[in-house]
Structure formats: structure tokens, C-alpha cells
């Protein structure tokens, strides 16, 4: 059972455009992480959000945790080709004692 | 620190052969995870260890898959016999203190079973 659904699955945009990726679930998470995976490499952590309603910024990336801690979003401003990759959200569900990874959003930013 | 080390990076084998994937976690990390990634199914957790003890192997697809962690610095994932549907990228990851803390991934092993 996939607990975390991400949308869109694929996104192809031009350099300079803005975009938002969504991560949704019916489960409540104690924390949620966002990873980026580049081709031929393993995922790398971008950010962890813990508090409902929390907003974190990492340069042009803005991460938000839903008030009910069931969803999250990643907004990229003025996307660059270096942002290309697979974006994965991962939730820590109380009682599961492990991370549950989302379905992933594959982003391609063309020059 | 060298990060999580996996070997081999690429493995091509024929159906029915035994395949062994290897992982060295980050020194001091007490959790080790094995994942499988495919386009169709995404990133799936196969098994994870805490202090070398298997905690959750519910993601292991079937008896053909086995994993061991003989010491804190080494783990193996074995497939015997391998099948074409096992073709995927296999990742090892490690974390510190909690299984839901930040996970540090290795570069992966791309397995192709012909």
C-alpha cells in the first residue's frame, strides 16, 4: 500500500519557470523529508519539516508542511537546469518506525 | 567520511545465477536499509537492520532474497536464483539513532538479469 502520493509524476519546463510539487497522504506524519535524486546517484536529503504549517526555504526552494501534517509541497522559483532530477518525499509515520517514500516527481528543466 | 559504499556499481547476470550485492554503511550509523528502485514501483524498502539485527523484512519479495549484516560495517543482499524481474537499481542507506532520521544513500547497484 502506497501511503504517499506525489503529483505530478512528470514535469518538463523551461528554465526560469516556477513549479510546485505535491505530496499527499491520508496518514499523519510526525515529520516529512524531501530528497532529490540525480541520475546515477542515490537520493540526497534537502530538508526535514516537523511542525504542522511549517515553511522552510532553501535558496529558490520553498517547502511547506500541511497544518494537519498529512501533506507537503515543494515550490521552486525560477527553475534552473541544475534542478533536474527525481524529487521524493518521505514520511515518518508514528508506529511504523521507518520512512515511507512517495511515488516521486521527475523534473526536467530545459535551458 | 566516504559515505555509504556499494559494490558492484553494475551487475549483469543470467537468469538463475546467484547475485550478491555489498554495502558498507557510514561508520557509527546504527541503522542500515536495503531499497529497490524501478520505474514502475518507485523506491521500495526491502529490509532494514538495527545494530546488525534485522528489524523489518516485510518488503523482501520472496525467499529468493536474503540479507545479512555480519558486523557493523558490512551487509549483503543476495538473490538466488535471480530472475529478469529482479532487474532494478538496489540502494543501501544508513541512518543514525532512528530509522526515520535522515537517510544517507549509497550510489546504488544497477542489476540486469538477462
Short account of what is shown:
Chain A has 111 residues and is mainly beta. Chain A contains no helices and 11 strands. Helices cover 0% and strands 54% of the residues of chain B.
Defining traits:
heterodimer; A: 111 residues; mainly beta; 6-stranded mixed beta sheet; 5-stranded antiparallel beta sheet; 11 strands; 0% helix; B: 114 residues; 7-stranded mixed beta sheet; 4-stranded antiparallel beta sheet; globular
Describe the 3D structure.
Helices cover 0% and strands 56% of the residues of chain A. Chain A has strands at residues 5-7, 10-14, 19-24, 29-37, 44-49, 55-58, 61-65, 71-76, 85-93, 99-101, 105-110. Chain B is mainly β and 114 residues long.
Would you spell out the secondary-structure blueprint of this structure?
The complex is a heterodimer of chains A (111) and B (114).
Chain A (H helix, E strand, L loop, with lengths): L4 E3 L2 E5 L4 E6 L4 E9 L6 E6 L5 E4 L2 E5 L5 E6 L8 E9 L5 E3 L3 E6 L1
Parallel strand pairs in A: 2-11
Antiparallel strand pairs in A: 1-3, 3-8, 4-5, 4-9, 6-7, 7-8, 9-10, 9-11
Chain B lengths: L4 E3 L2 E4 L5 E6 L6 E8 L3 E9 L2 E4 L8 E7 L2 E6 L8 E8 L8 E2 L3 E5 L1
Amino acid at each position: 500500500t502506497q501511503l504517499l502520493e506525489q503529483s505530478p509524476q512528470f514535469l518538463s519546463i523551461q528554465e526560469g519557470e516556477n513549479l510546485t510539487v505535491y505530496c499527499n497522504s491520508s496518514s499523519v506524519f510526525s515529520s516529512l523529508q524531501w530528497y532529490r535524486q540525480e541520475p546515477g546517484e542515490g537520493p540526497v536529503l534537502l530538508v526535514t519539516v516537523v511542525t504542522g504549517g511549517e515553511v522552510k526555504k532553501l535558496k529558490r526552494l520553498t517547502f511547506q508542511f500541511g497544518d494537519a501534517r498529512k501533506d507537503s509541497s515543494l515550490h521552486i522559483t525560477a527553475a534552473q537546469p541544475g534542478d533536474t532530477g527525481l524529487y521524493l518525499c518521505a514520511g515518518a509515520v508514528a508506529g511504523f518506525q521507518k520512512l515511507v517514500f512517495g511515488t516521486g516527481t521527475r523534473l526536467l528543466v530545459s535551458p | 567520511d566516504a559515505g555509504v559504499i556499494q559494490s558492484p556499481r553494475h551487475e549483469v547476470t543470467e537468469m538463475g545465477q546467484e547475485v550478491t550485492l555489498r554495502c558498507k554503511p557510514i561508520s557509527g550509523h546504527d541503522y542500515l536499509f536495503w531499497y529497490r528502485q524501478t520505474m514502475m514501483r518507485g523506491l521500495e524498502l526491502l529490509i532494514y537492520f538495527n545494530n546488525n539485527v534485522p528489524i523489518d523484512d516485510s518488503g523482501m519479495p520472496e525467499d529468493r532474497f536474503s540479507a545479512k549484516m555480519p558486523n557493523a560495517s558490512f551487509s549483503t543482499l543476495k538473490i538466488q536464483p535471480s530472475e529478469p524481474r529482479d532487474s532494478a537499481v538496489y540502494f543501501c542507506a544508513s541512518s543514525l539513532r532512528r530509522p526515520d532520521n535522515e537517510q544517507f544513500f549509497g550510489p546504488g547497484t544497477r542489476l540486469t538479469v538477462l
